[in-house]
Structures are given as C-alpha cells and as structure tokens.
Amino acid sequence: MEKPTNVYATGFILGALAFAVRLYKISNPDEVVFDEVHFGKFAAYYILREYYFDVHPPLAKLLLGAAGWFVGFDGQFDFENIGDSYTEHHVPYIGMRVFPAVLGSLTIPLVFAIMRECGYPTLIAAFSASLVLFDNGHVTQVRLILLDAALVFFMTMSLYSYVRFRKLRYWEFTFEWWAWMIATGVSLACTLGCKMVGLLTFATIGTAVLVDLWNLLDIRKGLSLEHVAKHFFARALGLIVVPFFVYLSFFWIHFKILTHSGTGDSFMSPAFQETLQNNEMLLNSQEIRYYDTVTMRHKDSKVFLHSHPDRYPLRYDDGRISSQGQQVTGYPFNDTNNHWQIVPTKSLPPTGRGRVVRHKDVVQLLHINTDSYLLTHDVASPLMPTNQEFTTWAVNDTTRYDDTLFEINIIEAHDGEPWKTKSGHFRLVHVPTRVSMWTHSEALPDWAFKQQEINGNKNAQERTATWFVDEIINDETGADLRNRTGTVEPKPVKQLNFFRKFFELQMLMLQHNAGLTASHPYASGPINWPFLISGISFWTHNDTQRQIYMIGNVVGWWTCVMALSIYVGIISADLLARRRGVYPIPEPLRNRLWNSTGLFFAAWAYHYFPFFLMSRQLFLHHYLPAHLASALVAGGVFNFIVSETINYPISIPGPNTRLRPRTHAELGVRSFIAVGVFVATLIAMFLYLSPLTYGTPGLDGDQVNRRRLLSTWTLHFAGK
Amino acid sequence: MASLHGPSTFRPRQAYTADPISPPPEPAHGQPFPSSPGLAYRARPVGPRMSASRGKPHPPGGIKMQRGEWKLLLAVCAVAVGVRFYRLGWPDSVVFDEVHFGKFASKYIKSQYYVDVHPPLAKLLITLAAFVSGYDGNFDFKDIGKLYESVPYVAMRSLPATLGVLLVPVTYLTLRALDCRTDTALLGSLFITFENGLITQSRHILLDSPLIFFTALTTLFWTGFCNENRAAAFTEGWWVWLTCVGLSLGAVVSCKWVGLFTIATIGLCTIRQLWLLLGDTKVSIRLWIRHFLARALCLIVVPALFYMAMFELHFLILSNSGDGDGFMSAEFQHTLNGKKMQDTYADVGVGSKVVMRHWNTNGGYLHSHDHTYPGGSKQQQITLYPHMDTNNDWRILNATWDASSPGYDHETQPFRALLNGDMIRLEHIITSKKLHSHDIRPPVSEVDFQNEVSGYGFPGFSGDANDNWIVEIAEGDKRDRESTKRVRTLRTLFKLRHALTGCYLFSHKVKLPDWGYEQQEVTCNKNAVRANSLWFVEWNEHEKLPLTSPKVNYRKPGFISKFLELQKVMWTTNAGLTERHAFDSRPTSWPLLRRGINFWVKDHRQIYLLGNPVVWYLSTLAVVLYLSARGLLILRAKRGYKDFNNSGLVFYDNVCGFLVLGWALHYFPFYLMARQLFLHHYFPALWFAVLLTAAVYDLATARLKPRYRVQVALVLVGLAVWTYWHFNPLAYGGQWTKGKCESSKWLKTWDFSCGDFPQSVSDRSCPMGVADQKQYGDYVTGASAKPTPPRVTMVADAHQPGHIPQQNVAEPSAEQSATLATAESVGNVPQPGRDVFQDHPDVIQPLSASSSAKPEVGPQERPETSKAADPEEAAVEAATEAPPPLPANEPENSSPDADAETLD
After folding, report:
1. Where is this region: Disordered (chain B) (predicted)?
2. β-bridge mates for residue B455, sequence order
3. Which CATH entry fits the domain spanning B344-568+828-858: 3.30.70.890, 2.80.10.50, 2.60.40.1190, 3.20.20.70?
C-alpha cells in the first residue's frame, strides 16, 4: 500500500472521483442560483470594466471574470434574480461554473497530499480526503459561481506549502526551503485575496511559525541570537512582505480593469470618482460662485434642503417650546422651495475668480421663495432636544445677523479650494455655535407634512452631516451657466495614487463588512454549523419540485465533530496524566498528536471560533474551511486510535541530522475494513442527499420529508 | 509538627517558581503546599509574619499588622471620610443616574415591580438607607437637576460614600496581605483616597461604589485565604476565609453583572492553585478531590445561593404590579398584586366567550379593533395587544353550520366542550367580525408563506369558508389529564389551522407601524415555528356552564422559574442597549483617560466624572512596565538566564502577576461588549492597576533606605493630592472660573464645558441653596448683562437622543394646560422647555409678567436641566412605558398624511 505507485494511484483516483462528483450535471440548473446574483454580476462588471463595490477582496472575482471572458461571456446579463434563466439570455454559465468546480476538485488531492506529507499512512490520508470528497456541502458550494471554492483551495494550498516548508527544517536557507516558504506566503495572500476570512488562515500559519521560532530561540537548541534573527527576518520576508505585495497586486489589477463609471461610484470619495470615465462628477462638476442659486442635497439620504412658509408649532407634544420660526426640512423631490442663494459676507470683486466660493468661506443662505436667511440657534429641534433647531429669518431684519452665518467646510479640502457642485462634499457649520447642519431619517409629524427633520448636530465632525450641491439653478446674471467656464468638452480623467485608492477601498470594505447585520432567513449562528442544524436554500424550481439545499454530509460532519471532541479528550487526559507523573502515550506518537494533528486542530479552531465574535450575517458555508481542517483532524485521530506506530522520519534529514531508525506505520486489516465500511456509508449518505445537492431530480413530498434528517432543515416542497 | 512550620527562606522561594526548568520542590511538611499568585513568601530578613507564627499550632494566615499600624490605618480612613463626605448634600438636585437608582429605591419602598438590567443588591442597600431615614417613596427622580423635596438623599448618598470610604482600608489591608511594606500600603490607599473619579462616583446614588468595594473585598479575602492555605489547609481559619471569599463574590455579582469578571479572576487563580496541587505527587488524589470540593462548595455554591437569595428578597419586596410587568410572562405577572386574575371556568365550549393569549411572546391577547389595514385586503386589523380590554373578547362559534346540515347550535343545545379537530369560527364580539384569512400577503411580513389575517363580515352574516379554523391541541398540562383531550382554560396549548389554506394562526415580535398602534402583527403562517403558533385561553365564560363548574387560574411559578425568567429578561435587555450615548466611550480610551462623563450642570457649576490624572497615568504606566518587564524576562529565560532563581523577583512577579491578571480580566472583556460603555466601567480594573502601581513602587524602592523611600512616596502622594485639589470643583460641583477650567483641559478630548463657569468667582458667588432662586430671577427678567455663556445647554449632550420625547408624553395635566391656555391668550410665551433665545432676553421678556406660569415652573425645571442619564436604565424605562392602554375604541386615526408634494 505504501509503495509510491500505490500512493500516486490512490491520489489520482481520489482526484478523478472528485472531478466526476463535482462536474456531474454542472449545467443544472440553467438558472441563477443563490449568490450567483452577486458574483456573476461582478464577473460581468469586470468584462464591462465598470466600477463596482463589494466587501470581498477581488482575487476570486477576478478569476471568475477571467473564466467568463475566456468562455466568451460579453457581460450583457445582469444576474438580477435567483431563478433567471441563463439559456434564454445566452450566458456561457457552464464555463464560469466549471472554473470553481475545478478548484474544488483539486482541493481533494491536496488534502490527500497534506496527510501523506505529514506522515500518515495512505489509508488514513484517503479517509480524510473522502470526508471532503463526498461532502454535499462542499460539492454544492463549488459547483456554482461563488467564491468559496477558490477560498478553500488556496487555504488548503497554504497548509500544504507550509507542511512542505516545515519538512525542510534541516535544510534551512536552501532554495527549496525558500521556495516552499514563498509558496506558503503567496497562497496565504491568495486566500486573503478571495475573502477576508483568509486572515484566519494567516493566523493559523502565523501561530505555527511563532511556535517554531520560539523553539528555535530556546537556548538548548544551541542557536546563536544572530541565527535566530536570520530565521525571523526570513519568515517576515516570506510570510508578511511577499504576501502583502501579492495582495496589493490584486487591487492594482482590479483598478486597472475597472476604469469606467459603474454601480460602485457612489461608495467612493469624489477624488476617487473623478478617476473613473463617464463619472457624473467628472461630467457635471462646476465651480460655484457667489449669488448663484443652488440646490443642496444630503449625501446619505439624498433629500434637498427645503423650506416653506409654514412655521414650527409653538408647543410640541412633549411640552417643549419652539421658536415658532419658519420650517426648514429635508424634502426628497425637486421643488422651487429647494432654491437657495449664496450670499457673501465679504466684499467681492466685480468679476473674475474672486467670485468663486471657496473652502472655509463664511456665507449666508437666502431662501428665494420666502426671502429669508437660513438660521440656527440654541433652541431644541422638534425631534431631538439635543440638537439645534433650523429656521429662517427675514432678510431685512438684521438683529439676528450673526446667527445666519455659516461656514462652508469642504471635506478633505486644502485652503482656498473652490466649491464645486456634485463633487464638493461639505459640512455647513454654523459660525456662532459650531453645529453642523444634519438630518436623519425620522420624519416630522403632520404639521411638517412628514418631511425629514433638519437640525444642528453638536458633533461638528459628524460623518453623516455631509451635503453636496446638486446643481446650480441660475446665477445673478441669468446667463447660460455652461458658458461661464468657457468649455463644455469632456474633462480628462484624473489620476489618483494607487495607495490612496487601495486604502480608501480597504477601509470601505471593512466598514461595510461590519455593517452587514441585516437578518437573512437562512443565516445561522456558528454554534449550529458543525452539527448541521440548518442549511441554506439556494434555489427552487416549483414545477418540477427541484431544489438545491446546501447542507453537509451528515455522516461526515458528525464524524468530524466526534473526532474533534476525542482529540480534546485525549489531549486533556494526556496533560492530566503527565501532571500526575504518568506518561501514557509513547513519545513519537505524542509528538505527532501534538504537532501535526495539533496544527490541524488549530486551523479548525482559528477558522471557527472567531465567527462567534462577528456580529455580521453568518451562513453555513462560512464553516467550509473549518470543516476541511476538521477532516484532517479526523484523520489524525483515526490514526491514533487504530495504530500505535507511525511513519518516521517525516522531515527530510539534513546533512547533520542524527538519524534514528526508520519506522513504518502498521495498520491492520481491520482498519482497512473499518475505513471501507465508513466510506461506503459516507457515499450512501452522499447519494441519498444528492438530489438536494445537484438540484435534480425533483422530489415529491414524501421523498423530501424522508430527506429531512433533522427537523430544523427547512426544505421546500415538503409533504404534509 | 509546629516546629516544622518555621518558614525558611529557601523553601517558598522555589515553591513558587512555576518555571518547568526547576523541578517541584519537596514540601517540608505533609500539608499540601500550593502556591498561589501574589502570595509568595517574601524572603525578608525580619518580617512580622515570622515572629507571629511562632508558638502557635500553625502559622495563621491572613494579614499581619504591626503594632500601631491600626492607628495609621484609622488616620487614613479619617482622611477618606473627609474627602468622600465633604458637602455630600451638594448638589441638592438629582445627578446623572440617580434618576434611575433613586427611582428604583422609590419603587422598592412602594413595592412596585420594575425591571432593570442590574441585580438587586446595591439597589437594596440604597433602599435600606432611604427606608431607615424615613423616605416615603413619593419622589419621582424625573430629571437630572430636579430639586430634591422631602427625600433623604444625603442618607441615600452616604451609603455609596461609606462603601467608598471603606474601599480605602480594604486597599490598605490587601496590600499588606500581599506582603507589601507599610509605606507601600499607605501609598496605595492614599492613591485610592484621592482618585477623583472614585470620589465622584461614590458621592452619588450609583451602583459602582458598592461594586468596586465588593470587588476589593473579594480580593482581600482571597489574598487572606491564600496566605492561610499556604500555612495549612482545612483549618477553621482556612474555611472562614474561603467562605468569606464566596460570600463576597456573591455580593459582587449581585451588584452588577460585571462582577462576573471578579469571579473569573478568582476562578482562574483557583484553577492555578489546583493545577499546582495536582502536580504535587505527594498529594493523594483523595486529598486533591477534597481540596477541589471545598473550593467548589465555597466559590460556586455559596455565591450562587447568595445571588439567588438577593433575588428572593427582590421578589418578596416587589409584590405589587408596576411598570416592569410588561417584560414578564403572564404567569409571572399573575404573582403581582394588582395583576391577579380571578378564577375562571376551566371548560371551554362552543359558544364560550374567551380571551386568547399568544404563548411564546409577551405580545398579549388576540385583539381586533375598528380600524382597517391600509393595504392588502383593507379589512379590519387583527393584532396582539398586551393589555386587558373588551376588544380582546371573542366568541367561539360552530363552523359546521351549513344550510343543509345545521350541526350544533350553542344557543339551543346543551354545553359541548371544544375538542381536538373541531372546526370553529371566532367572532369578535364588539365589531361582529369573524377571524378571517385569505391569500393576501400580510402588511409587514410580506413573504410568500404568510397570509394576512383580518376581521371580516358584518352582523347577521354568518361568514364564509375562509372564516373556518380547525383546533389542534398541541400540548396539555401534565397535571390535568383532560386538557390534552379537550380545550381547557390556561391548561391547553392549541394551534388554529386555517381550514382552506392550511396555514396556522401565528404571531411574532414584529410590530405594526403607526396605523396599527405599534401592536404586534398577527398572520397565518404555512411554515410556522411551532412555539409562535401556540395559543391558550386565558379567560372563559359560557352561559350554559353552571356556577359550580370547575374553575382554574394560573399556577404560581416557583422561585426558580421566576428567577430564571428574570435573568433572561435582564440579559436580553442588557444586550439590547446598543444605542449611542453622548458621553459613552470605548475601552481603548479608558487607560488613557481620554474622556469623562458629564454628570450634572446647573447654575454655572458642573460635576464631571474625571479621574485623577496622576494616579490614573501612573497606574497605566505600571501595567505597561510590568508587562514589558515580564516579556523581557520570559525571553531571557528562554535564552538561559536564571532570573527566576531570585526569590525577590519571584515574589514581585507573583504579586504583580496576580494584580495584572485582575486588571486584565476586569478590562479586556469589555472589548467584546457591543453595548454602550462608560468610563466608570473601568473602575474595578483601575483599582487593580492602582494596587499594581503600589507594588511596582515597592519593587522600585526595595533597595532604598527607608528615609528615601518615604521621600519618594511623599512626592508621589503630594502630586496626587495636588491634582486632586486642582480638579476638585469638577468632583464636588464647586466653584471654578472659566479661565482655570480652560487651562485644566490637559487633553483636548476632555469635554467638560468650560463655558458654564463664570469668568471670575466673584461674578457668580452665590451661597448654595439660595442660588437657584437668584439665578432663576436673573433668567426670567433677563436683567443679567451677559454672564451666561452662549452654550449653557451643553448638558443636553448628556441626554440620550431619542428617548426624551417619550418621557413627557401624556403629561400635560389639567393645571398645565390651563396655564398654557392663559399664557397663550395673553399672547405670552409660556415657560420654555429650554431657554429659547436666551441670548436675546429682549425677545422673550413678557415671561416675567406672566405670573401664572411661575408656580408651575419651579426652579428645578430650569432650562438647562433635563432628563438624562445612564441610557441603560433609560432604555428600560422607555420600554417600560407601555403604550397608554387604549380604551375600547382607540383614538381616531390621525388625519390622513398630508401629501407633501401637493402642499409644496
């Protein structure tokens, strides 16, 4: 069994099976499934080169885009809804699905190889690999245009490279040593490039490296400090610096491809938007001059700054009193009551650039229809006693002059920067009280026609107190505005430093990722995952009663959970026994259990427990990387149970290594039978659940009921 | 045996080295010799411990005090009393969260049930103080700044203040028990004495002072226990100390749940003790198990019992219905006076008039009223409504009625019980509509598998097939066999299946919008979660039932189930406190003291919670120093240096390690909390850090001559006292000037509002008490030139945006509205809720003329003051304010929303 030909043959068979299982009926269904809505769309955007925004890093989506481009997808399909037909719109979706399926299939031989490289017998390695191979969850996920196949593949690749690197520990600083280390680094970067979850893979490998370095530091190793430092810097280079640049390169390509304006524009800063072709800001941004009449909109809620002759009621329902001034509200529609004129507070030159409004200028805002100035004062606003009321003050009454002064505070502007429509996001800061004009989504009562409240926020730096000038209605002369700037030609696209773009996007991704807290019917908490308490309904077809329901192979997953708990049990028993001076486990076996299975266990823990801290939406498929790690643990534990012998040595002996006698693991016939029976059960369960995995054939009510192995699975078309 | 116990300098030195390099030493006596953090024996040439241990059966543990040291301790306590109690009666108005905790004291005294996120001990203590001094519970603690009237608030404040004072000797004794020197203990306790933040927090009716005190007390007892344990286990003293630790732990966690961190600290130390004990192969497993069980008994069982006892007390006191009812289940509410229900008939039959309640949510009763859905079928609304009301009454009708087969008629035929599988109709008695469902999406949950439920029909119309529901009994009561066979009031849980579509009558925690008065949505759900489709009959009448027929009532829940239910409610409420507060802060800012909390502003004075910067920064520095030193030592050990063979180092490492562990466990868990956090949450961690500062001082000056040591200590204490003095106006609400205040903003992020202070002291020096009157006079007449800085209203920041509006709803009393009317008729502006145009007195002058406005607006309702405070309770409160019970007919629907577009 352990002859190289046999090993390779086993690996090859597993790989072939993986391809067969994953590519089987890949064209089914010919409709948009689950998150293909998003990732298919992103692929289309790459092909159309339109800028979009997403919380995930670009690598996996770039690859999907590349696959789509390769099979001739023209990007002219918008993946709008789950269930939209591909064939009707002539989308070459099969090619786009094959790509992740191939990555998903390649993962299986990699799992096998990891186990082999760690010194487990072929049978054990095959056992681990089949846990992933015949897993309905993995199969469902990798057959579709989703990111997880790439994520899991690169994560496995990282583990594999690291194991290879570690095995070369007696050949430090050789070419191969460097090569495998850099390979680890690059794989890590690719993992991170698929999804932020890659950070957890970084943590796994990072911990292993730190433990390794810690042991090198030990005085009993006999290494000089310089030598340890050399090791340290080598790893810093290979596992931090290299991955960082690889990760950057993904974004560099991302920006290079997405050069046109698209759906993601509005997420970005004005400076960023002006680097995109055909962007509205680029096309319509104009400098504003004094005495221009403009409309202003709130950046987040898009309401116009509005006023009308109605007044605030003297007394609110809660007993507080208002100034009874004219109402100032936020109004979502175009209206002449949205027109405000910018009145200077300083003398202006008759013509020329001196009339342009600039950053930090103090102005008054005149409401055209009611001929009154915008004003705020220390009176509580209708809805929020903590914020100031906004109202207006008649133009000819100068008693409140000071309170009508506002400073234009353009965001991220340098001194003297001109104020522009569209792109000049600004805060309007009241000069005497330093509050910022702000609005929030709560509507005023009937007396203000349910319009939005405008008030003064005492936190002058409030991020959501951002406004922009929508358009210039007319200027004092009434001349054609366009001629003012002289040219109407399309402006050139601006350039922005790559790093500025990178950091801006990176921050936005993190913010939005944390903001994904809306509930989803198929979201589930991490505690449910290992036990498969609930799955995700990906797709349903009413007429034929077909459905895709993402759920793992119950036999496989519960075996993994058992293996994990057995592992914890063994480790604790070992610790306790040793504390009492008893040494129950032979040293070589114990080393294997702690170091190799320990690494897998750490990988599982790192890819699982952090999810408990995340408050964003979580889904079962977030557990797939952890499940793969738990399959590795299961192999290690199984090996520990059936055999007291191990393959030794594993690390490649160096020139100075003291060789101890070589040993081979011996597995009895019984373990072959055990694995055989187990894999047969696994396959049986896989086939039993496969209609839910492949979305075909359709099932009638009774059949669905029988497949509902746990009452918490929400399958469709269940019988009564 | 006794002679063996004379401690030698070698044995302990090794015993406490956890370094695996050195093998565990042999204890010189048969007793287990577990090390415990912070308790290493100190190799010192002459120590009080040695002399004291001689000539006794075993060396007693605990604290060794030198003769005369008590006097020193008393002196420190006297200083602490001076610092904490100085003008405790000022301000004579409500400060910060006194709004809540004062109110809770009132509720205890009046026995009105309330729900709060904190366990009861600290609040009970405050109530005790109030009760003893004769408080009658009739003050509402409504707003920050409201003037106290006939409230023994000084007595109530003196409870936290007393515990704040006691914290000082506890600090002293803990340091001594940790084997630190007298001067170290003195330094630590003086630091605590002059910590402005602790002072401010302990001077008001707040829970943190008890919490910190009990945290410290636990630490003291634990240290004492470890000392005892090191000497000999299972002696009488050993048990006493251990039990004290347990009781004190119970007290901490009964003050606030933050006390769990203290439990974690003690728990980790215990585990370490047991782990070391396990490694000692001389200790038999039997003995080890005895150790284990003793600790489990005293550190798990005792605190748990203590904690539960507090809740038992809580339930005993709060026997009447109050504003916390709405949080609790029907059974629970039924235990409260005023919510008790009369016995009702047990047998539900066709023709019964019933009130049905939803089982899984506290949404209340199946309800309908004379308003229609704005969308969907536009038929009458069906909701869940939490209060008793005649609109909750339904009549069960037989649905087999059919022209051809008349079936059962309850009016003419004898009583027939409602059985499983019966097809019924439910008629809403007041509006004569039938409970109806059809294939239209519900108003809020617009999903395919849910249908709208409405009221449909008119008097005389017998209904259509969509009114038919099938009763499915889901669960009966185990003690009432009959309840599984037929529907029995309060005993049977049943589902109602819609006969035509097969969906189940369903409700969930989704509120209808304004048009549904924010009552809970009721739908018919095809994929219903079982728990949310269960209903039961709470009230039942039937004309045909004889008066003697069996009656039932709610079963009284036992203490355990009440206790568990309340824990759950507290947990969900606590987790829901995620709204931002103007003065909240994240844990990262605490060790650097980046921001305080505005407690109270009035009359050009303010109270602002801010620590003593010297003490605070020294403590943070101590933590950083220890951690980096320890890191360096670990690295050195790895490279073969034998630092840990030095017994002095090991001693300090143990003491500091224990204190840093306490600090870390009281600090880092806050990072995991999403709820709003405040600076005062750092105080327990600060206490550990201050102790650590003292220990670091002890280490740093260990080799100095006593004279120099004292000098160093004097300089440190002097600095602390000076900063204390510098910032005392913020702590005591004393006089300050704008200039001094501005120059005291050592960090830009300290946001006490200097604008509130006058330019010079003489400007505004009014004796307290009279001040209000004078100020008010100034305000009203507008006579004062312009001393009022423009932003007096900064206090408003302390208020939770959003919840204020609710506070005053439904308030306008007849008197007030009368005033309002008169004021308006005269053309005057009534007293503003805030100072409108205060900068422009000319605009608002008429106010003083309107004498009618005056009596209503006492000085306490000065503009700056307003509702505020710790949002924790605020949220509870907001939630407690149950919607005013709607009368049988809800107020007319508000006039249709004005169409904004047309009006503009």
Report:
1. 1-39, 44-63, 803-904
2. B380, B435
3. 2.80.10.50
